[in-house]
Design goal:
Helix content: over 70%
Distance between the termini: 64 Å
Order of helices and strands: HHHHHH
Structural class: mainly alpha
Radius of gyration: 22 Å
Shape: flat
Oligomer: single chain
Low-confidence stretches: none
Length: 196
């Protein structure tokens, strides 16, 4: 595999800069000038209420384990073929199945995290944002556990690549599910305000 020439890298960086900087400035000005006054969908207090003490299984780590296990088990079979193509130097040719498995992963993880958000909001825990991101991306920790338990050779380069892949999965899935949980939280506060 050959590296890109230096001139090509410079051209890519210049094009990227010429596209992102004007778009960032334009969207910043548009957001500043187009903003409206915030309208809360329900009555809010000035100070947050104290969250009651939760049982151990509603803490962050047990919820991450629960949120990561089911989606990981949904994609486990397809992982065998993907890893065989990556580490065994085989060709992976079933791209449509891989896309379907990715959609299954997103949908199953969204359902799990929405349910966990509901349970968290039901006990009036208002600090759910970071937990939603961590629970959404906990499938990456399942990948790491699978790799370390099922025979990943303990070479530094391979362990580093496994850790990088787990972080990539976390960063890919976490924001998608944070958005799903945000929609759930908005719907639940709107429903609660309508009930009052």
């Amino acid at each position: 595999m050959a590296a890109l020439p230096f001139g090509t890298i410079v051209i890519i960086i210049v094009i990227w800069t010429l596209v992102t900087v004007p778009l960032t400035v334009f969207m910043g000005v548009t957001g500043k000038n187009g903003s409206t006054e915030f309208y809360a969908p329900c009555r809010t207090n000035k100070y947050p209420r104290e969250v009651p003490e939760l049982p151990w299984y509603r803490a962050t780590l047990p919820q991450m384990a629960m949120a990561g296990f089911l989606p990981f088990s949904a994609i486990y079979v397809e992982l065998y073929y993907i890893f065989a193509s990556v580490w065994g130097h085989k060709v992976y040719v079933i791209w449509s199945i891989l896309f379907i498995v990715f959609l299954i992963l997103i949908v199953v993880t969204a359902f799990i995290t929405v349910a966990l958000t509901y349970f968290q909001l039901a006990v009036e825990d208002h600090s759910w944002w970071w937990r939603s991101f961590l629970c959404g991306g906990s499938t990456g920790e399942g990948l790491r556990a699978r790799d370390l338990c099922l025979g990943a050779r303990p070479r530094r380069a391979r362990v580093g690549r496994l850790a990088e892949r787990c972080v990539r999965v976390r960063l890919l899935i976490g924001p998608v599910l944070l958005q799903a949980r945000s929609c759930t939280a908005t719907a639940s506060t709107t429903t609660a305000s309508a009930a009052r």
